[in-house]
Every structure is written in structure tokens, then in C-alpha cells.
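User: Structure with flavin-adenine dinucleotide, C-alpha cells only please.
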Amino acid sequence: MAQNYDYDLFVIGGGSGGIRAARWSANLGAKVALCESDRLGGTCVIRGCIPKKLMVYGSSFKKHFEIARSYGWEFEEPQLNWKTFNEARDKEIKRLEGIYSNLLKNVDVDFISGKGTIQDPHTVAVNGKTYRARYILIAVGGWPIKLSIEGAEHSITSNEIFSLKKQPKSLLVIGAGYIGLEFASIFQELGTDVSVMFRKDYILSGFDQSVRKHLQKELEKRHITMLSKCNPVKIEKEGENYHLTDSKGKVWSGDSILMAIGRRANVEKLNLESIGIKIQAPHYHIPINNKFQTSCPSVFAVGDCVTKPFQLTPIALSEGMFVSEYLFAKDKKLEVSYENIPSAVFTQPEVGTVGFSEEQALEKGFKVKIFESTFRPLKLTLMNQKDTNQTEKTYMKLVVCKKTDRVLGCHIVGDMAGEILQGFAVAIKNKLTKKDFDQTIGIHPSSAEEFVTMRSERK
Ligand code: FAD
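Assistant:
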């Protein structure tokens, strides 16, 4: 392949979508190059899913120490060594970065370190050198944005939170989407005093309303302060501290502020306009057709930088594979569907969700039956919690179509929610009914069995 061109495919961006497309295409016989302006691995590996999940694990021990005492374990008050924790996490990230580099080498993808810019529909420039390719794939991901308020420069984003030299004493998280809440939970569990400020009544917009309310209550039980219906207007610095004033004149003071209000596509200076690709503020996502082709026929785009409903790693991976097969495979098997995508929010407790929320199902015109269950997890029953209102509760919900009995949505707030939901996602994807759930024998004793034993419908 690659006659008259240096490459069959030139990939801009070495994150989840770009690396997967480069490897898959090379496996299909294409001559491929990939450029990356930062560290290989992208958001997921370097400053997203993986370092975050390691921090979730690291922070979850506090609760486990408390549980252990209720089972008779005796030990001195455990202490976290912030430096050791961060160094161990960073070492693992470095190891993964090396693995990605080897994966590209193993399939003969040429890796070029540097920022790619598009010169014309078949040419990419990196570090002053140009490369000609039959196809170009843009997989540049996204970047966190900040509110444009006075003093915004005093806040950090999810990028900087992984390099804090010391653990904050207090943290204000602005934004109650999944990224903000996950960090709120991590830092609260690590012992930081955390507040979350958001515009709506409840956290986690877009999720099932019962899930949003339940999680908010659970996070409050864990002493996260929820500042609902707030609009930040300015941040002022005073010595080591920051004061944030909201639109009602209320002031929050503390030593760190995380803005987690959203992300925009990393398309600055890519020179997209020169090849006729139009992007729009505030998110600058690249418009694509159902083959991930942009308005310039030789240029494709995948991952967080394109217009689509979800921005998650497994989706970027499947989009990358789709484009590879579309361009280079004789037998094209893959499809990308945005229906019934399972996802988890790694707060403590976790959220797992797949399919429609109750509100979405009603909006789509379904008449629904709701099955739900709230219970105290068995593992926590030995803890001496005198005030039962303060004990952690797991919440599970099934949204079922009245007419067909098909389970339209499955939601959980509780320990291991992500792990539990992955299997149920197969059931939802395959349109199984409530009867199929009921006929499945539960695994006892477990929380997951609740999904196959719920019998009474909400009145
Ligand atoms: P990226 O992984 O962002 O890769 C794009 C790459 O392109 C970057 O390495 C960037 O440096 C490079 N680049 C940009 N411009 C250029 C250029 N001009 N030239 C060369 N290189 C360039 N998803 C989940 O599924 N589960 C999670 O738990 C989860 N947690 C997350 C936590 C956080 C804090 C964040 C921020 C995201 C999280 N995500 C999670 C989302 C997930 O990380 C992204 O959906 C995924 O990484 C998108 O992959 P991508 O290939 O589109 O982009």
C-alpha cells in the first residue's frame, strides 16, 4: 500500500482512539505513522481513568480500616504517606506509557514525537517536517475548560490534580459531573474537607433522578458538603488560601479549588479551517458522518474530539477500530452503537448505569414499571453505627417497559456497582425481559442478586 504517499494512515494523537486505530490499521497491513505532542497514552492513561482509579483504590482504604475494626482487627491509626502514594501511582503510569510505546513498535507504526498540524487533505506537519498520507485520522481528545470568572487562574483542573505536592486540607470542587464527583470522593476519603458547588438541585445531571438523589445523600453522609444552586463569581487569593464568592454573595474559603465544569476538543492550531472543517464554540467538536469521516473525505476523526453523546475510553477504542476496518479491512465486521452504553461513576459508593433512566424512558413514550430496592450492605452490618440514618445504603433500580416487559434500564448506587453492571449490560443490550431476570438464579449472598429477585413494583 501507500503508493505516492509516505503512509496509508497518519494518526494525530496518541491516546485511546489514536493508538488503537494505529495498531489495528497496521495489523490490517497499512503503513502507519502516529504523532503525539505530550506523553503516549493520552488522557485515559496519563491524566484520566487509570491514575484516577488508582487514587480511588488508594482512598478507599480508610473505610476498609473502619470496617476491619468492626470485624475485630486491631491496629494503630493508619496514616497516608502522600509522597509514597503519588510516586507509586506515577511509576505505574510511566510503566504503562512504555507498554504503549512497545505496542506501536511491535506492529511497525512510526512514532513521531511532536504536535501535528494539518497542511492539506493529505499532509501533516510535525516539527517542521511534512508527511503525506492517503488518510489522516484526528484523535486529539479533549482538554478541561475553566469558568471565565475573575481569579479563575487560582483554580486547578483534573490535569493538575495529579501533581499536587501536598494533600489539600480543604477542596472546593466546582461542577458535579462524574469527574468532579470522583475527585470529591477521593479527597474526602483521603481526609480532605470537601465541598461540591453546582448550579442544579442535584448532582450528576443526565443520570436517573433516583440515582442522583441517592448518591447525593450518600456523599453527604460521608461529610461532603453539597452547595447546590450556586454560581461562582470570583476567586481571590489571600496568602495560602482562596476565597470563592458565589452569586448570592456567600463565600467559601480553603486551600484548593478544582474546576470540573467540562472539556473541549483539543483542536487549537490543528488548522482544520484550511481543509474546510467547521467547528463551533464552546466545545469545538469535529462534525463527522456515521463512518467517522469529516467534511474533508480523506480526513477521519474519533474519540473525545468528535460530536457524539458519550466521551469514554471504550467508545474511543471502538471508534478507532471501526475506522481501521472501514479503511483497510476486506471483511468489515464492526459497528459503533451509542445505545445502551454502560458506565460507572467511581465515587464512594459507586454508581453503575446502563440503558434508560426512568425520565428518559418516559420522554421516549414508554409506559414503565419501576422495581427498586434500598438496603444496608451485608459487609457493613457489624459496624457500630447507632444512627441508622447515617449507615450506608445500596440502591438498585430496574426500569421495565409495561407493554413488552423488556428491561430498559438498570441502575445501582453501591459498592462494586461498575463490576456488577458490566454483566447486566449484556442483558440490556440483548433486550432481555423482566421475566428473564426473574428466571435467573441469584448468587447468594451478594448485592447483585437483588437485580434478579426484585418482585414488587413501585406503586
Ligand atoms: P485522548 O486520550 O485525550 O488522546 C488524545 C491525545 O492527542 C493526547 O495524548 C494529546 O496529547 C494528543 N494531541 C492533542 N493534540 C495533538 C496534536 N496536535 N498533535 C499530536 N498530538 C496531539 N473514561 C472512561 O471510560 N472511564 C473513566 O473512568 C474515565 N475517567 C476519566 C477521568 C478523567 C479525569 C478524565 C479527564 C477523563 C476520563 N475518562 C474516562 C474519559 C477518557 O479518558 C477519554 O474518553 C479518552 O481518553 C478519550 O480518548 P481519545 O483518544 O479521544 O483522546
